[in-house]
Known about the structure:
- By secondary structure, this protein is an alpha/beta fold.
- Helix content is 39%, strand content 22%.
- It folds into two domains: 3-250 and 447-470, Aldehyde Dehydrogenase, Chain A, domain 1; 254-436, Aldehyde Dehydrogenase, Chain A, domain 2 (3-Layer(aba) Sandwich).
- The N and C termini lie far apart (57 Å).
Amino acid sequence: MRHYVGGGFDASGVPFPLVDPVTGRTVGEVPAASRELVDRAVGAAREALRGPWAGWSPAERSRALHRIADGIEGRFEEFVAAECADTGKPRALASTVDIPRAVANFRAYADLLAGRGERSWHTETPDGRGALNYTVRKPLGVVAVVSPWNLPLLLLTWKVAPALAMGNTVVAKPSELTPSTACLLAEVIAGAELPAGVFQLVHGHGADAAGQWLTEHPGVDAVAFTGESRTGSAIMRAAADRLAPVSFELGGKNAGLVFADADLERAVEGTLRSAFTHSGQVCLCTERVYVERPVFEEFAGALAAGAKDLAGYGPMISAAHRDKVLGHLARAAADGEVLAGGGVPSFGDARDGGFWVEPTVLAGLPEDHPAVREEIFGPVVHLAPFDTEEEALALANAGPYGLAATVWTGDLSRAHRVAPALDVGIAWVNTWNLRDLRTPFGGVKASGIGREGGDHSLDFFSEPMNVCVKL
Ligand code: NAD
Ligand code: 6OD
């Protein structure tokens, strides 16, 4: 595990343990970046803004992104193994989502950049000759990228790729819990013929450590962050003093709406996937499902049966996170009904030392219960009945978050009525987590600020400047 600063690797810093969530055992050490190293990383990124990188054309940057994508593909199995080791997620997930999506992030932004144009305007002038206005896109400068542990490489590259595409330099700080694929990415970038200082990687914790020192650094021009909403508030306060722009992807408490006219089998199967993928540790996972009353019992029975049958799921990321999830389950069991799961699985092997929680289906809790209002970020879903479309919308739209929602219905008119009326950034109809990388991605309310994806990211990571030429 090494930092990557100014084109060189660096293993300095007080080490902290890396823990395998599957067994709870310490399996390695990560050096924590000192404040001095963070300073050096920001300094190297500033320096690189004045170097040859500034002269690279969009086409050259686009080709560089493809080289990085090639580099990840060339070490695909290493990336998959590292992601599984850090997160405990099943290989099937890392090899079909995390790593291919990281490759796709570089390719998608490379292609968008290569084909991107800007508008120009002809302005009338009294002498009749007019003036031509055109837009020049400039990088923001040094961008801090701070990312979480749930989809470590996917969410890091989701920001690094568009930031580099637009000519910025980057200092990235991955989650302290999942640093391994970021290290591999630094190795790939080191071999991708980018000028020294264009990409930096520093490891460490968040508060009073590398994350905070980086995001409050006066040499950082913008912050792109994915993580908890309250961390976003702390980062925004730090960025406010220097008015640095922020792009935030934050927490969620995503709702599913199941109407009686839905294909119930498909809705159950889709909800199992949306609630329990990566054991609920995906920001888009569904944690509340509202089911139209005539089909509530049937849906609840089938979902609970499906949850009991789930095999091949992974653990929570850490002991602290497992304890938070189990705390929610203890309160929920006391106040409502547990239809499936609710406990810790027993394996009779080394996994018993890991951070496991059973896929859990709850019902019967009031809407203001912490398990229904707060983000759990674990394999836990609560079911409640509704009687009318208006009630379903009111239930889904209540609460502090607004990231994503899913509507299950067989009525086309209802789908088009309900989906746009949801207070979220992303709504799916009869599917979940079908994501085209060019579409806007992000949340409303406490779920985020701004949009990522396609041109939205390229816009965030650049400053449009107007040039007006009198003809
Ligand atoms: P977190 O906020 O604890 O940490 C995220 C990153 O921020 C880590 O790298 C951490 O070290 C750093 N950090 C923590 N405190 C900091 C501080 N004061 N200053 C600067 N950096 C700091 O989040 P997490 O537990 O790693 O991730 C889970 C959360 O992320 C959940 O809330 C989930 O909903 C959210 N998430 C959101 C999206 C989205 O797209 N909306 C995607 C994935 C995860
Ligand atoms: O784009 C994807 O494939 C994906 N799974 C995004 C998830 C983001 C939030 O955790």
